[in-house]
Every structure is written in C-alpha cells, then in structure tokens.
Amino acid sequence: MPLKAYDLTGRTAFVTGAAGGIGRASAVLLAEAGAAVHCADRDEHGLHETATLIKDAGGTARTHHLDVTDRTQLRQAVESCERLDVMAAIAGIMHSSSVLETLDEDLDRVLAVNFKGVLYACQEAARRMLDGKHGGSIVTMASGAVDTGRPGLLCYGAAKAAVVQLTKTLANEVGRHGIRVNAVAPGFIRTPMTERHEAEEQAQTEAVMARMAPLGRVGEAEDVAHTVLYLACDASAFTTGQILRPNGGVAMPW
C-alpha cells in the first residue's frame, strides 16, 4: 500500500523544541504515524502537555527536560533511547535587531540555540545511527529567512543559513551509511514564537504576510509538521541534502 511508506511503527523519533509550535505539531504527527517519540525542550510544562496529547491519542511519548545548548544533556537524552531512527532538530528562538544595533550577546545567544543546538542534535543523532547500523533520518529546521535579507533578522537568518550548510555537509558525510539529512525552511508560520505583538499588531502582521504569499494565507504549525513527517519516513527514501520550503510560495528559489 502506498501509505505504508509513511508508517513509522516500530521506529523511534527524537524531537527538540517539542513543547510547542512546530516542534509540538511534529512530535504529535510522528506519533500518529506510529513512532515512539522522545520529546525534548527546556519548557517543562509545555513538554508535558505535548506528551499528554500524544498519550491521550494512544501514542508513546517520553519527555526530556533539557537545554539544547548543553551538549552533555542532549547526549545523555539521546543515549537513553533504545534506538534512534529519526532526529527532528526543531528547537529555536527568535531575535530581531538591525545590523547596526546587533550586540555580541544577541548574536551569541541566537547562534547557541539556533545553530549550535542543531549541530549538537545532529552530531549525537548521527553517532547513534552509525552505531545502530540501520540508517535513519535527520531533519533540521532552517527558515525562509535563508532566502531573503529581511531587515532585523541578521542573527536569526545567519544561524539558519548555517543550519543549511550543516545539513548539506552532514548529508554528504553520512549518506553512504543510509542516513539521510534534510532541512525544512518554512515561511511565516503562526506559532507562539511568531506571536510577539499585541493582538491588533499581530493581526496586521499576519495580514501583510498573507498578502505576500501566492496561497494567500500564513502557515500553521501542522503545515510544517507534514513536511517533517515526509522527510522522516520511507516516502523520502531517495531524498537527502535538500531544503524543503513549506512557505506558501513566498520564496521560489531555483
């Protein structure tokens, strides 16, 4: 059956940033596809909410309260998995400042979470998959910011561009072992991270972003989660080193 390629029964997935937004939506969808999901985040309350959603729907979830910038915490959590088939490195933070107003501490903080946190997750996952000798899929979270020079997003965009380079490099290094590495670069998605304004200002921002998209709307976390699921499962068995863009058509690079 064609849908068998989307079945993750018997597999284990690890999702960072699982306490909300795209991370939560991805964790829930991977569980619906049959995976046992390890949910990781520094937001303990949101983390347990995600695990409850999965368990109430009949899925399997385990939580790891950790900070992705702490390599040791991440390593211990990954090593606790009985096996590892999927790593979805989704944890990230947003920061906005002009180039001239960007401070060292702003850049360091964003790079620590949005790049180093992804790097650590990729390293630990790849090591575990290589030890298991059964291949696997690593999914990183880039951003539509890598295709633009949007004002105010220097730190965020630079970190996400580094994630793209990490994705392509790692894909080349581990592909011969049956490990696939791909990135997702969403457009504007309605999540807690993008809801940074008062309700009226937020509505105006979303209206502007919707007008920029050929599909005429902003994205939902579930739109991105379906892309994560595709990259995690056998439906994308011949896909690696790619950047998939669920962005409503805002960016259409070659």
TrEMBL record:
GO molecular function: 3-oxoacyl-[acyl-carrier-protein] reductase (NADPH) activity
Top EC class for this record: oxidoreductase
The enzyme's E.C. designation: 1.1.1.100
InterPro entries: NAD(P)-bd_dom_sf (IPR036291), Sc_DH/Rdtase_CS (IPR020904), SDR_fam (IPR002347)
UniProt entry keywords in alphabetical sequence: Oxidoreductase
The UniProt record lists the keyword Metal-binding: no
Entry similarity comment: Belongs to the short-chain dehydrogenases/reductases (SDR) family.
PANTHER family noted in UniProt: DEHYDROGENASES, SHORT CHAIN, OXIDOREDUCTASE UCPA
Protein name as catalogued: 3-oxoacyl-[acyl-carrier protein] reductase
Source organism per UniProt: Streptomyces pseudovenezuelae
